[in-house]
Design a protein that fits this description.
By secondary structure, the chain is an all-beta fold. The radius of gyration is 13 Å and the shape is globular.
């Protein structure tokens, strides 16, 4: 099982980024998949999860971030709008009851 995140980068506050997570070796189907993030010197923070037709978000990103998935392509997306400096972190996708993780992609908001 391999998860590969991409789409991170540096952006000014108020800007947008779209992250992708490609999953291989594992059929997502309706299995829950999610996004987490970890800022420098901070603990990991759950951001969003998609399970079946339900998508949930942490209060810190609700209304600004939108998660979606492409079952046919086994790809997860995270559209991030109105970015703030507090969103600066390394973003990871995970699935399989959080047994499988990608290496992450860095998002820096200045």
């Amino acid at each position: 099982v391999q998860l590969v995140e991409s789409g991170g980068g540096s952006v000014q506050a108020g800007g947008s980024l779209r992250l992708s997570c490609v999953v291989s070796g594992y059929t997502l189907g309706n299995i829950c998949i999610g996004w987490f993030r970890q800022g420098l010197g901070k603990g990991p923070e759950w951001v969003s999860s998609i399970g079946g037709d339900k998508t949930i978000y942490s209060d810190s990103v609700k209304g600004r971030f939108t998660a979606s998935r492409d079952n046919a392509g086994n790809t997860l997306f995270l559209q991030m709008n109105s970015l703030k400096s507090d969103d600066t972190a390394r973003y990871y996708c995970a699935t399989g009851a959080w047994s499988y993780w990608g290496m992450g992609t860095q998002v820096t908001v200045s």
